[in-house]
Amino acid sequence: MTTDEFRKHAHELVEWMAGYMERVESYPVKSNVKPGDILKKLPETPPTDPEPFDAFMSDLDKIIMPGITHWQSPNFFAYFPSNSSPASVLAEMITATMGAQCMIWETSPAAAELEEKMMIWLREMIGLPDNFEGVIQDSASSSTLAAILTAREKVTNFKVNEEGTGSAGTLRIYCSEQTHSSVDKAVKISGIGEKNLVKVPVKEDFSMDPDKLEYAITEDKKRGFIPCCVIATICTTGTTAVDPIRGIGEVCSRNGIWLHVDAAMGGTALILPEFQWMIDGREYIDSLVFNPHKWMFTNFDCSAFFTKHAESLISTFEILPEYLKTRTRGQVNDYRDWGVPLGRRFRALKLWSVIRSYGTEGLRKKVRDHIQIASRLSEMISKETDFEILAPVIICVVCFRYKPAGFSEDQINILNQKLNNQLNDSGKIYLSHTAINGKYTLRMVTAQTNVTFDHVNRAWDLIKQTARNI
């Protein structure tokens, strides 16, 4: 493709992209294709000769688009927000055009220094102390793995990296029963082992109980185990419960345990002064992650990982082969030493674009609006005698179920599963579910970039009508 052809197709593609943003609400939110439908439409072998870009675009519309679930639709209420915005998309286009490999400062000084500044901006925006340093990772899963690996090395004086897990004794990791499954995966990858992940019981509001945490730690010490890391959560995936950072931090401080905070989605709410209570006890935190690619309108992937022990993080991951030695080492941040991958994308550029496009007050307004919409939805649900709220509504997630009179708990679970499937199959809205105390629970997330109360109100009418027709 020549540059003239690229220019022509790029202009056409921008029109397609803008049109998609304008019409995304008209698509079925959840793809209704069956397993294998897309695969059958794709050629068995790659083309021998070059094909025109027009053919690619034609197949994009005919083959790919029917199999896309539209996360950017304002009728997408499932899982968690995976928000984009025009400012983010434009910066991503620039990043793709430059194709920069940002593994160390030398390979793109501007990328490294912009990332450093963006993490300072985010640190100030969410209210972390000045002794925290940050790095952009690809996901909260990778960030939590980095925290657990660093805690493992710190508690064993870096012996595991040198001698293997057999030298460490039995390390223990602690989290609540509501903590994200990425912690389970991380303890397996780390070599600590899933049997050594202790799930601490929660209180009535589904937050971790610090007293039960301390009891578990005390019992483990009696058995000769080595407490390594506690993962607290600000807004759990299922119910958006907020673990009490101060109470948990005091337990960690007394026992010399690394405290990692997973604020993957809820961390964005920390930009609001009225939600700073969620991080009370921040002085006890050793590391924290939140995802601008969830609720800060920065398209995937962009995960902000902070720690006040950058030297331990670097010591855990740094390896210095000859071909990566530079004259600037020690004077700059070589971010490939701050996590698992060597290769790194220029993620800071889209974050810079988004923050400048909205401004901090614009970001706060969007986030505050989403929270207020969830609160209004919760009020509407509470007024219906055949529906019930199943968890406190803290940020932008409402957990509820249909509960008509005269049905057993098992029957109600079946009804709600059927309701969820019918709503999603309609293509009009998309909800996901969780289980709360054995109850099949619908989750409605009111945080898509362009969602309004009208979208939520129409969705609620559809939910009521569909439920009562089952």
Describe the structure.
- The protein is α/β, with parallel strands linked by helices and 470 residues long.
- It folds into two domains: 1-30 and 69-83 and 359-470, Alpha-Beta Complex (Aspartate Aminotransferase, domain 1), CATH 3.90.1150.170; 100-345, Aspartate Aminotransferase, domain 2.
- It is 43% helix and 12% strand.
- It has helices at 3-23, 37-41, 53-64, 86-98, 109-126, 140-155, 159-163, 182-189, 210-222, 245-255, 292-295, 310-317, 348-382, 409-425, 453-469; strands at residues 133-137, 171-176, 197-200, 226-233, 258-262, 287-290, 303-307, 387-389, 397-402, 432-436, 439-445.
- Strands 1-7-6-5-4-2-3 form a seven-stranded mixed sheet, with helices on both faces. The chain has a four-stranded antiparallel sheet with strand order 8-9-11-10.
- Helix 10 (245-255) links the parallel strand 4 (226-233) and strand 5.
- Helix 4 packs antiparallel against helix 13 (348-382) and helix 6 crosses helix 12.
- The longest helix is centred in the last third of the chain and has 35 residues, at 348-382.
- The protein is globular.
- It starts with a helix and ends with a helix.
- The model has no long low-confidence stretch (mean pLDDT 93).
What's the short story on this structure?
With 470 residues, the chain is an alpha/beta fold. It is built from 15 helices and eleven strands.
